[in-house]
Structure formats: structure tokens, C-alpha cells
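Model it.
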Amino acid sequence: MPTASLDPFDLYQITDELSEEERMIKDSVARFVDQKALPVIAECFDEGRFPAELIPEIAELGLLGSSLEGYGCAGLNAVSYGLICQELERGDSGLRSFVSVQSSLCMYPIHAFGSDAQRERWLPDMAAGKVIGCFGLTEPHGGSDPANMKTHARKDGDDWIINGAKMWITNGNLAHIAIIWARTDDGIQGFIVETNSDGFEAREVKAKMSLRASVTSELYLDNVRVPDANRLPGVTGLKGPLSCLNQARYGITWGPIGSAIACLSEAIDYCADRELFQRPLSANQTVQLRLADMARRITGAQLMSLRLGRIKDAGKLNPTQVSLAKWNNVRMALDIARDCRDLLGGSGITLEYVAIRHALNLESVITYEGTETIHQLVVGRELTGINAF
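Modeled.
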């Protein structure tokens, strides 16, 4: 097989645009994925089990709340966080989802909107992986319309009484605390709800065909009493949860690049080794065209996310820019995973290979944190000035 003069997974030498620290972070997470995650993740997917035994090492690497300052957090820049997401999702979307929820959806709102006491109480233990969080926004009837929220909290002396239900909650049955968004007389507010509270129940969603190496739950709150000290005082209204989602969506623009690279790498090796009609599959023009198209699309996604990260680090990020990259990059990865599965033929449907696992996972990734259609309409609104939701 001819020796390639370029890295097939970095055709535009994007690594050269990274700082030394960014490259070191990428390499350290890549080693963790290769050495610790990949040997177990297919079995975890098959068993429908999140590899919780990896949490201490994930925390030791500084991957939880990595973009936050202080409280035991690493204080990394946005590009570094993106690279973390890319390498974790090269292993499995479930790994990236765990870190994304803990960091962007749970630690971020406490850091951004919490009191000093709340930050001191929760963030150090969350960064150390000793306290796991989940994010309760989506409701069974709500989906893409978070303003249609039914969960409500009413004041009762110095406490709040919360009633409602949340659906499709990553980490729900692992969590020690839940960031619950609820309607109040003063608007939507966030609450830190300890999951051992009376009236709080998490039920794990079973029989999933996607994100099987991740915990997905339904949350039920029946007259759960929460002290006012657990209310996030720094924000009121949907801008609170939506700002959290924007943090997480940014990471998702990077994550699927890792899935796509994993699938393309496997497909290149398979097509080189597999012989049909007295020649390797990779000697066929149609195969080379398909592989080349995958590399083209990955390169475009890499450039988009790197530029997005630099914009974010400059403090100039617009949510529409995140929507464009989430739409483009997840669609890219899903299409590549499906095509790689096809190139592998019958072998592609087994967990001995990664393509089917990534393809199934990406069916969730393209839906959560804003469906593809929602992000298309966000871009459309930016272009026309008309809200078509």
C-alpha cells in the first residue's frame, strides 16, 4: 500500500494551528481513549452499560468542567474543550455525552448563575468526579419547545415545592444532583435538586438502540422540597437553560468529528485488507471516491469547529454559528458512519467493528441539543429575519 504523504485524518494540517498545550491535551485524551475506553466500550454498548469505572480517570485528566476557572477546574480554552470532545467521541458518543452533561449542563450553570456558597459546595467535588450531575430541561411533551414547560415550583416559606417530569436525561440514574428548570411565579428558574430528596425518582430508559453505553433516564418530581439556598440566583427565564445548551452544543460540533474519523480509519484499513475479484476493495474507483468524499467532509468540519473555537475564545460567539456547525458536523458524521457501515458489508453490522455503533449513537446526537431541523431554522431566521418555528 502506498505511503501517504499527508495524515489522512488531518489533510489540511489543522494540528499545526494548535498551540502546544492544545496538542498535549488532544494527545493525552487520545491515549486514554485508546488504552482505557476502546478495550471495553463495545462490550458496554452491547450490555447497555455506562463504563462508570472510567470516571475517576476522566476526572484525574481534568476533563470535568475543563473550561471553568477555579474550584479545581482546569480553566482550558474553548478549542481545548472541543478537542477533548472530539477524542472522547472517537471512543463513543456516550463518553462525550457524560463529560458534556457534567461540564456544560451542570457545572457551567452553577459556575455562571450560582451563589458563592453553591460554587464552593458543589464544583470541587464535581470536578473530581465525586458528585455527578444531570440536567433536567426536556419534558415528555416538550421536545424542541422548552417554553412549553409544565414542571413548576411554588414558594413555601423558605423552601420551594417542585412538581413535574423530565425526559431523555443523560446521567439521570448516576446523578447525585439534578439541575432542574421549573416555572415559578417570577419566570423559569433553575434549582439544584439532590437526587436523594423525598419525592424525587429517576427511572432508567431501557431497550435503547442508540447511546447504549450511556445512562438515559426519566425524572419524576412529586412535591420535592428544595431550600431556597439551592435556587440558582443569577438568572431567570429561558436564557438560563438555553445558555447552558449553547455551551454543550459547541462541544457537540467537535465530538462527531471523532466518530467520523474512527469510522473512516476503520474503513480505510478494511478496504485495504479485504480482497474481492482478485484485488483489494481500495483499488476500486468507487471505493476511493467514497473514502475521498469522507475525508473532504471531515476536513470541512474540522475547519469549521476550529474557527468556531477561536471565535468563542475571542468572546464573539453568536448562537447561530453554533447551530450551523452542529447541523453540518453531526450530519457529516452520521452520513459517514452509515457509508462506512456499508463498505464493511456484513461485517459492518457487528460490534467487532465501530461503524454501526457510531451510526446508531449519532442518530441520538443529531436529535438532542436541538434537532437538525431546529438548527436549520435558526440559520434560516438569521438569513431572513423571520422566525419560522
